[in-house]
Amino acid sequence: MQITKFITRLLLLLSLFIVGSSQIFADEADELGAKLTVSPEFCITSGEQLTCDLKVLLEWKNQQPRAICILSDYENMAKWCAEDDKANSLSLNVSTTEDIQFVMIDKETHETLAGVKLKVTQTAEPKVRRRFRNPWSLF
Amino acid sequence: MNRLKLLSLSAIFIPFLSWGDIDVPCENDLECIEVGQWDLGIAFGYGERSNPLKDYSDIPIYLVPTFAYYGDSWFFDNGNIGYTLVEEEKYTLNLSTSFSTDSAYFQRWDPSNIFLAGSNKFEANSIAANGRTLLMSEEPKPDVGPLERRKFTYLGGLDAFIYTRAGILNLSLAHDMLNVHQGTEARAKWLYNLPVQNWNFEFALRLDWKSEEVVDYYYGVRKSESPYWNQAYQAKSALNVGIELTTHYVMTQHWDLIFLARYTQIADEIANSPLLDQDHTSTFYLGTSYRF
Questions:
Q1: How far apart are the C-alpha atoms of B89 and B165, rounded to whole Å?
Q2: Using CA atoms, how far apart are residues B37 and B39, in angstroms rounded to an integer?
Q3: Cβ of B94 and A128 within 8 Å?
Q4: What is the pLDDT along chain B (292 residues), one digit of tens a residue?
Q5: Which of B52, B88, B148, B167 has fewest C-beta within 10 Å?
Q6: Which InterPro entries match (chain B) (predicted)?
């Protein structure tokens, strides 16, 4: 059991590392004929709302029908596997303050097929609050 | 005096009888501050603060600093410390400290006079009898001798802000924290900001209530100063009324021109003290400021 968990984590880390080199990965993904998309792609936080609470939709296409698994670095969904090769989407409720990386792998071979990232971005404006005294209130 | 108080009370409270959508906060950098960043600035210019104490000089003003730091809840603003208990769109409630402004008339280096330059007679001089009293009496009243020290103190209490379309209503209640006079002060202040292109005009009307302990500590006469006036002048709680205008003209990102004018009508209960020879105090300042 422990070994399985260890292997799963190792696979996840390995997959995330591969996805880090996006261009290389994109080329490989194209070669494998697999595509994974997330909608929405961005979540913008502002003001006091620093957490993204939203429902994301993962969709995938494979040139060759195959059962897949989705791995992520989102702690509430480390791994999800499709029951068969007909599944092509997954909706997921997430609550996060950081980016989430999703990776699609072949369920049987554990071959990495594609990856996508949900990006969490804070508005560029600095956080401000009301000032309670006039700057020149020393008078 | 009473008409001025009535007028001020009306001006403060009548606009709030008609509530509407509140203004968008942070229309300019005078109303808001960046969280987690020091706001530092210094003003250069000339101004004067009149001193209502008899035989005490007015206070010239050349340099004025400003320094503030606001966290998510705590804040430090020009020497005062506060903690925001509640902050909503339409109101804020703070625990905060404030200065005792009355001590500034007695001591040159009181925090309220910080960075004000000039050679003032802040020694405890002999204070002649109140002029108005002299007119009413055939026999001259005895002089007040050298004054004992009137200490500065911090006040601490609740500070509320109510934001409306008609401006900001600020209500505060604070008590002596350093056990100097054990008195209480309350304030009602109405503020209205009017931004016009590069100009910003801030109008304020204020009512400052001081408890009997505050009035007695600063304006009462000790036995050692004058046994006669110690008995003749009995302090009572008092309500001062003031108006303020603060004008900014934004020249560049860092440089502003500023003009300030303050006028306070001192309550009769204080003005009757033999230590005073004026029933009002005024401040003006014209200069340029640099915000870092």
A1: 12
A2: 6
A3: no
A4: 455 555 455 544 544 444 444 444 566 667 789 899 999 999 999 999 999 998 888 888 888 888 999 999 999 998 899 999 999 989 999 999 988 889 888 876 565 555 443 434 444 444 544 444 444 555 677 888 888 889 999 999 999 999 998 999 999 999 999 999 999 999 999 999 898 888 999 999 999 999 999 999 999 999 998 889 999 999 999 999 999 999 999 998 889 999 999 999 999 999 999 999 999 999 999 999 998 8
A5: B88
A6: MipA
Question: Could you give the domains of chain B?
Answer: 2-20+38-291 (2.40.160.40)
Question: Which ipTM did the prediction report?
Answer: 0.76
Place of tokens 């014209």: B286
With an 8 Å Cβ cutoff, is B202 touching chain A?
A: yes
Q: Which of residues 170-189 of B touch A (CB under 8 A)?
A: none
| B63 in contact with A, Cβ within 8 Å | no
B262 → closest Cβ in A128, A130, A139: A139
Closest CB to B34: pick one of A128, A134, A138.
A128
Q: Do the Cβ atoms of B157 and B187 come closer than 8 Å?
A: no
Virtual torsion, Cα B227, B233, B238, B240, nearest 10 deg: -90
Distance, in Å, from the CA atom of A69 to the CA atom of A64, rounded to the nearest integer, reads 15
Under a CB-based contact definition with an 8 Å cutoff, are residues A92 and A100 in contact?
Answer: no
Buried b (16+ CB within 10 A) or exposed e, B39-57: bebbbebebbbbbbbbbbe
- Residue A97 makes CB contacts below 8 A (sequence gap 6+) with A45, A50, A51, A52, A120
Beta bridge partners of B291: B41
Q: Do B260 and A139 touch (CB under 8 A)?
A: yes
Overall pTM > 0.90: no
Residue B201 and residue B199: Cα distance in Å, rounded?
7
Q: Smallest Cβ distance to B33: which of A128, A138, A139?
A: A128
**A33: number of Cβ within 10 Å:** 12
